[in-house]
Amino acid sequence: PTQSNRLIQKKYASILSVPEGEIRNIALYEFIDEWTGTPYKYGGCSKSGADCSGFTGALYSEVYKRTIPRTTSDIEKQTKAVDKSNLREGDMVIFDIEGKKSSHVGVYLLNGRFVHASSSKGVIISTLDSPYYQKHFYRGGRF
Fold first, then answer.
1. Would 82 disulfide with which of 35, 58, 126, 140, CB 3.0-4.6 Å?
2. Which of these is catalytic: 23, 92, 116, 141?
């Protein structure tokens, strides 16, 4: 791997608490690196501001070369349900917040972590183990 790839591996292995060898999709982590801290903006899908489904769509377009639906509820409709214990890197994680099913979406990474555009903090990596996300987890989804 190149020097920049090694730096990405080292950084995200540390963030996700996994061995460096588990960070294989360098394009995914480079994308996250570029977008981390992007402010939350309802209806946005660019680095100047993005909402959760806008960010997820941009990630899928760039990293996986795939166009996905624009809204969380449409993402839910087009994915196959995946049990939390079977989530794989790149799967959708869908949340039910304030009683609205499919009100938030992120992309699963490794070791219980996911990346998403949080309305309070912008693009960040969070853990499904946090009480808030445990309470609101609705389902995983796979295209």
1. 140
2. 116
Of 60, 67, 42, 37, the C-alpha closest to 52 is: 42
Q: Residue 127 has which token pair? A: 């853990």
**Which of 34, 44, 18 lies closest to 109 in space, CA to CA?**
18
Catalytic residue selected from 49, 51, 102, 104: 104
136 as an active site residue: the answer is no
Tell me whether residue 45 is one of the annotated catalytic residues: no
**pLDDT per residue as tens digits for the range 81-129:** 999 999 999 999 999 998 878 999 999 999 999 999 999 999 999 999 9
pTM: 0.97
| Longest alpha-carbon distance in the chain | 46
Structure tokens that stand for 128 in this block = 């499904």
> For residue 1, is pLDDT > 80?
no
**Residue 26, pLDDT above cutoff 80:** yes
At 86, the amino acid letter reads N
Residue 88 · residue 25 · CB < 8 Å: no
* Cβ pair 14, 23 in contact under 8 A: no
Cα angle at 110 between 105 and 114, to 5 degrees? 25
